[in-house]
Amino acid sequence: MKAITWVSTKVVLLDQTLLPTQEVYLDITDYEELALAIENMLIRGAPAIGAAAAYGVALGANQIAATSKEAFLEKLKVVSDRLAGTRPTAVNLFWALERMDMVARLGDSVDEIKKALVVEACRIDADGEAANRRMGNYGADLIKDGYTVLTHCNAGALATEGYGTALGVIRAAVEQGKNVRVYADETRPLLQGARLTAWELVKDGIDVTLITDNMAGHFLKSGAIDCVVVGADRIAANGDVANKIGTYGVAVLAKENNVPFYVAAPISTVDMSLASGEQIPIEERKPEEVTHIKGVQIAPDGVKVANPAFDVTPNKYVTAIITENGIASNPYVENLDRVVKNR
């Protein structure tokens, strides 16, 4: 299951806004079109956004007619800046753009740079999927046979370069022969749990039960949940985690009910430049996402709306952070740094 891939000279992208009722793939040849796809969440999820940004740079490079390296790099910066402005919270976006910029600067000729950028974007994509599979194998050790796992939002193949982070952990446990059940929060306002996570798990034949967001506390308290596994959009150096809005509430409820709360994310999601989650920028999205569902108005005209896309879970609520380099637990300032540097 791939949300985005490079085919010949174009990007093929699964329009996630149409799931689960329609599975439509788009051919994209223009970087501005890809930037709009990121902004409008046709593609979403921190690792997938990173891959999309890399592919966007490759597309943009192919649109540049400049022949001198200096002029080419100047125009390429416009492309990169446009992509950087699409989503502020997911650090993978900026990590991927930095990698692409480094490759561009190393090239000698414009033609050489254009080819190298396509190769690098495909490498970012392939490396990301491989990292997810390693992450899944580490995380699967935390999932015992017979466990019921609660997850929030979508951190599966759709949100990544393939396989998934949180859902990758679940997939790996199932592939090991373990009997695993999943409870998926619907995840308002855009229902990524209901539309995307449930869709992925049903397609894979994994036992999934959909619940509304405000049911999580009930099932955690009742003893129905053995652990929580979620993804992340940015992780600060101290282990504070930014993820889809509502994650913080689930983490607090898990802590209150002595249920382990695990975060699965690649090291590209870890932002060691930020001391704590208080420094993570939180994207505010348009009011219509709250006042409407699939174009149907559910709130009165004129009502004020707040729509932060993410919240930050302090590290004290995080049992462990699962990465492709291993698992880190408190004290995160030391252990997360060790895992990121693969020591």
Q: Could you please describe the fold and organization of this structure?
A:
With 343 residues, the protein is α/β, with parallel strands linked by helices. It has two domains: 4-132, Up-down Bundle (Four Helix Bundle (Hemerythrin (Met), subunit A)), CATH 1.20.120.420; 136-340, 3-Layer(aba) Sandwich (Rossmann fold). The protein is built from eleven helices and 16 strands. The model has no long low-confidence stretch (mean pLDDT 96).
List the SSEs and their pairings:
Blueprint: E1 4-7, E2 10-14, E3 25-28, H1 31-39, H2 46-63, H3 69-84, H4 91-106, H5 110-140, E4 148-151, H6 166-175, E5 181-185, H7 192-204, E6 207-211, H8 216-222, E7 227-230, E8 234-236, E9 241-244, H9 247-256, E10 261-264, E11 270-271, H10 288-291, E12 292-293, E13 296-297, E14 310-313, E15 320-323, E16 326-328, H11 332-340
Parallel strand pairs: 4-5, 4-7, 5-6, 7-10, 8-11, 10-15
Antiparallel strand pairs: 1-2, 2-3, 8-9, 9-14, 12-13, 15-16
Give the strand order, joined by hyphens, for the main sheet.
6-5-4-7-10-15-16
Tell me the major beta sheet: 7 strands, mixed
Q: Helical residue percent?
A: 40-55%
Mean of all residue-level pLDDT scores: 96
Number of helices: 11
The CATH C-level name of the largest domain is Alpha Beta
Number of structural units classed as domains: 2
CATH names the topology of the largest domain as Rossmann fold
Percentage of residues in DSSP E strands:
15-25%
Assign the CATH architecture of the largest domain.
3-Layer(aba) Sandwich
Helix and strand run: EEEHHHHHEHEHEHEEEHEEHEEEEEH
Instruction: Count the beta strands.
Output: 16
